[in-house]
Amino acid sequence: MRDYILIVSFFVACSLLSVVLQYFVGEWRISGKRPNWDRIRSRMRAYPILFLVYVIPFILVVVLTFNIFHRTSLDIADPASGSVVQEVVDVQGTARNIAASQDIWVFLKPHETNLYYPQSGPALLQKDGGWSNTNVRLGGGSDFDIVAVLATKEASHIIQEHLRKNEPLPSLPIGAAAYDRVTVRKAQ
After folding, report:
1. Residue 157 binned pLDDT confidence (cut-offs 50, 70, 90)
2. In this structure, which CATH number among 2.60.40.10, 1.10.10.10, 3.30.2320.30, 1.10.1060.10 belongs to the domain 73-186?
3. CB neighbours of 112 closer than 8 A, spacing ≥ 6?
4. Which of 23, 60, 88, 103 is most buried (most C-beta within 10 Å)?
5. Measuring CA to CA, which residue among 172, 109, 170 is closest to residue 143?
6. Mean per-residue pLDDT for 94-116?
């Protein structure tokens, strides 16, 4: 999907640039004369809406393409949502554009409560963008959400303090955001 968006954005940007260039330089190639800057300025005064119709979409395509491909993402790849898992499970996923000042955390959220249980420390992030958190222990209950959270260093300190005290969190701390969530059922 990302490749498709990039290709379409590239062709739209090239098409818009081509139209703008043809609008300004089309007559120069035909006549072989040097650019007439007075004529260009008069066209700009006469057709500002036409100019805006071509330039603003070009700028938007460039900005949106940059934002789409440089966006932070954090996904859980394993276990899949709806899986039946053992009491101890390894959680793995992929991450993209994670800042060095951020940590990936895995939380368990039993369906019976609204509490978040942090798991064993920040996940290990590999160079290829994969991450893992091993030995995630499902407690009492049967249905759980496994939540992938991206946290700032300040939020990580709060989470580590709760983990050290073996206390759940009533909500994610400020500076922590849930990026992905899968629902699993503990095997009986």
Report:
1. very high
2. 2.60.40.10
3. 141, 143
4. 103
5. 109
6. 87
- Whether the CB-CB separation of 116 and 147 falls below 8 Å is answered with yes
How many CB atoms lie under 10 A from the CB of residue 105?
26
124-125 and 130-137 as β-strands: parallel, antiparallel, unpaired?
antiparallel
Whether the bond into 110 is cis, omega within 30 of 0 = no
Instruction: Quote the tokens at residue 60.
Output: 């938007």
pLDDT: which is higher, 186 or 46: 186
List C-alpha distances in Å: 52 to 5, 12, 48.
23, 15, 6
Domain chopping of the chain, boundaries: 2-69, 73-186
